[in-house]
Amino acid sequence: MKLLLKITAWLAVALTVLLSVWAVFFYFATTEEINDETDDSLIDYSDGLIIRKLAGVELPSEDNGTNNTYYIKEVPEEYAMSRPWIDFEYHEVFITAKSEFESARVLTRIFRDSDDRYFELTVAVPTFEKEDIQRSILWWIVALYILMLLSVLGISVWVVNINMKPLKAMLKWLDEYNPGKQMPPVPSDTNVTEFRHLAETIRKAAERFDVQYQAQKRFIGNASHELQTPLAACSNRIELLLDSPDLTEAQAGELVKVHSGLQDLIRLNKTLLLLTRIENGQFPESSPMDFSRLLKESEQMFQEIYAVRLVAVSYDIRAPFICNMNPQLAAILVRNLMKNAFVHGDTGQDIAVFMDSDGFSVSNPGNSPLDESKIFTRFYHSQSSREGSTGLGLAIVHSICKGYGLHVGYAFTGGRHVFSVKRL
Fold it and tell me: Which residues, including other chains, have CB under 8 Å from residue 325's CB and lie 6 or more apart?
């Protein structure tokens, strides 16, 4: 989940909880305040009625044109003593002026006159409907929540985008980083302490990777170069021994085995040297290369070498694929892919070549997919690898494509191994 979405989700949940709690408190606070004001007016009104009753002054009509209603009745002493002297309740009362029932705040008071007679005064004042105020508060809460949520989300997106620009720049730098490649400085134009520390950490890590990468390349290149002479000398001496007239058949057989293993070692050493030269950029010359021509030339060469395998090659060339590349590297790229298709498979198999202006692919039949995460790594050997394979052919293809901004990919589709080279 993206950081912005996570922040938004947490804010939405927090606002929902906060506004829900606020709505409950607001409802009860509003209700309590309205009740207080209503109760004060009921007490004042009832005081006036009791004073007039005790003074013998004529009371106002119960239907006096207002929504307030009252009535007084004499009650037994036992009833009066069993009731609270003042009590507030909610009831549905009939409002004569409106000819309908409404929710009302009702005050009930017990009082006694000078003759020790007890009276019960009931005063009712129409008040709000609880359902109406609940519905009103709910709608206001929903409207307020939507407004606040949109405002907070908008502000959050704006603030996060502004403050995350340095992090995005560093992530972009990391995406483009390759050990040994000349890179611009790590972006650190920010006053945020954590981001500056992160940029410094990335810079130091990249420097360590570059040092290790260069050391590894130097070691492989130097070791391969230094091994060339003694390997060639050993090979020549074995050939001289094989020409010796005193050599027995058993000794000759052993020397042939040693010579075969030594040739594999020489071939591996030359391949490592080539890979090192490619990664060091020692093939600067380039020219437009027509890969359809290179593929057909490679096919002719391998048809002669592997004639006994009876391989058939079909072409589907929609448009020529032309790319500026070193001629030697372009030939190596095509030969490695074509040889891989010729060597790995059964006798009589077919190889399909597809090409358009964006790239080409070479496919051959197969029984099971290869490991996509390792297929282009050095010294990878599949179960179908032939004896004598160095495991560096596809690694060289990957290194060449990487140096020229091409993408080499693998897929197992329709029972076929498909290796493709595309423009990025």
Answer: 286, 287, 289, 333, 400, 404
Kindly report each contact of residues 78-82 with a partner whose C-beta sits within 8 Å and lies 24 or more positions away, as own/partner.
Answer: 79/118, 79/120, 80/110, 80/112, 80/118, 80/120
Which spans in 309-392 are helix H? 327-343
Q: State the helix-helix crossing angle for 165-176 and 130-163, rounded to 10 degrees.
A: 50
Per the CB < 8 A criterion, the answer to whether 217 and 279 are in contact is yes
Q: How many CB atoms lie within 10 A of CB 337?
A: 23
pLDDT at 55: 81
Where do the domains of the chain lie? Answer: 3-149, 193-279, 287-423
Between CA 361 and CA 75 the distance in angstroms is 106
Taking a C-beta distance cutoff of 8 angstroms, is the pair 361, 339 a contact?
A: no
pLDDT surpasses 70 at 62: no
Long-range contacts of 132-138 (CB under 8 A, 24+ apart): 133/27, 133/30, 133/31, 134/27, 137/23, 137/26, 137/27, 137/30, 138/23
Q: What is the CATH number of domain 287-423?
A: 3.30.565.10
- Burial of 364 from C-beta contacts in 10 A (0-12 / 13-18 / 19+): buried
HSE-CB for 150 with a 13 A CA cutoff: 5
The domains spanning 193-279 and 287-423 adopt the same CATH topology: no
Query: Which of 171, 227, 228 lies closest to 198, judged by CA?
Result: 171
Distance CA 395, CA 380 (A): 9
Enter the tokens of residue 278. Answer: 């490619």
Say if residues 351 and 411 touch (Cβ distance below 8 Å).
Answer: no
Query: Are the CB atoms for 106 and 91 separated by under 8 Å?
Result: yes
Where are any strands of DSSP class E within 56-174?
A: 69-75, 86-95, 100-112, 118-126
At 361 the pLDDT is 95
pTM of the entire predicted model: 0.49
pLDDT(66) > 60: no
Nearest to 345 by CA among 293, 292, 396, 419: 419
Q: What is the CATH number of domain 193-279?
A: 1.10.287.130
Nearest alpha carbon to residue 361 among 406, 306, 303: 406
Measured in whole angstroms, how far is the alpha carbon of residue 33 from the centre of its chain? 51
Q: Which residue's entry shows tokens 């070692």?
A: 265
Other beta carbons within 10 Å of 135 = 11
